[in-house]
Write a structure and sequence with these properties.
mainly alpha
Length: 330
């Protein structure tokens, strides 16, 4: 064994491998292989078999491939391991098993994921996990299962699109953003810590050209940049779709005026009409007069309001605006 590897206690994934031995350092634990085989049989319970197969393969890479052994030598490999579980395997499995998200609220699952992820990076807890196979698997499952339930719930809401309210979509996006923020915070702490926080890896990183502090900083960058970017990208992409959803025609007016304020807008609009704040267009239909009231009290740009196909008569009769505003038949 290389002198840099000496003095490191073996973990579930074994002893830290030398770089030359890494390609052969596969995990042959029969219990793990049996568990993965049983999990593979669960493919019959999902119609999204491609997603399930991809998530299953990510678990194989995380726990069976030489990456498992590399997590003993490098703390940065441990960060990559967590990143694969949290940002790749969990979303794939969650999308494959939509029933996971039906049993727990996304906010509860998010809280569990955040707590477990934070505990993983507490030095005393890390030491406990390092020396105990039971703690190792307890912490791995405590991270993976709630994360899969979290992504299942989140992705179900985002896939539903127009079938769910904007509030639910905004809540889902805020939960993704919160997870990205926590990952970024942990990554920043690891990157800027002035000393090594996890002595369990010893000097094993020297064989891979990394000083212990450099290894820790690389782990922080992995959590901070790729980890945060994966989740933040999903938030940005779906946020654009949500914004686009609110633009066409009078959806904003109906959502804001009718769903959030209900009859209050109609009562105040009626009073304003009586007082002369909103002109009464006697030649227009009731739908046109309603559009004028909504425009007055929802602060929506006039170009977003239309007659929605009502027979408004002459175009200028529609809400008292010209042809550019009133678009009969839209």
């Amino acid at each position: 064994m290389n002198s840099a590897m000496a003095g490191i206690e073996p973990t579930y994934c074994g002893l830290p491998p030398a770089p030359a031995d890494l390609p052969a350092a596969w995990n042959g634990d029969w219990r793990l292989l049996l568990a993965l085989t049983v999990l593979a049989a669960a493919v019959r319970y999902t119609q999204r078999r491609g997603l399930f197969a991809a998530g299953w393969l990510v678990l194989v890479v995380a726990f069976v491939s030489p990456l498992c052994a590399l997590t003993v030598a490098l703390f940065s490999a441990r960060a990559l391991h967590h990143l694969l579980l949290l940002s790749v395997a969990a979303p794939l499995l969650g999308a494959a098993f939509v029933q996971l998200g039906q049993r727990v609220a996304s906010g509860v699952a998010l809280m569990v994921v955040v707590v477990v992820l934070a505990l993983w990076h507490v030095p005393a807890v890390y030491t406990q996990v390092w020396g105990s196979e039971l703690w190792y698997w307890a912490m791995q499952l405590a991270l993976l299962l709630p994360a899969a339930a979290f992504w299942s719930r989140i992705l179900a809401v985002l896939r539903a699109g127009a079938e769910v309210s904007s509030d639910r979509i905004l809540t889902a996006l805020s939960h993704i953003g919160a997870l990205a923020a926590v990952m970024g915070l942990i990554g920043a702490v690891l990157t800027f810590a002035p000393e090594v926080l996890y002595a369990e890896h010893g000097l094993a990183g020297l064989a891979y050209g990394l000083q212990p502090l450099e290894d820790q900083q690389l782990a922080g960058l992995l959590m901070w940049v790729p980890g945060q970017s994966c989740t933040a990208h999903g938030t940005t992409r779906h946020n654009k779709h949500l914004y686009a959803r609110k633009r066409p025609h009078d959806r904003i007016a109906e959502n804001i005026a009718y769903r959030r304020t209900g009859g209050v807008v109609r009562r105040f609009a009626g009073a304003a009409t009586a007082a002369g704040a909103v002109p009464q267009h006697h030649g227009a239909s009731s739908a046109c007069r309603r559009d004028a009231q909504l425009h007055a009290f929802s602060a929506v740009d006039a170009s977003d309001l239309h007659c929605r196909g009502h027979a408004c008569g002459h175009r200028r009769d529609c809400c008292g605006h010209g042809a550019d505003f009133c678009s009969p038949g839209v």
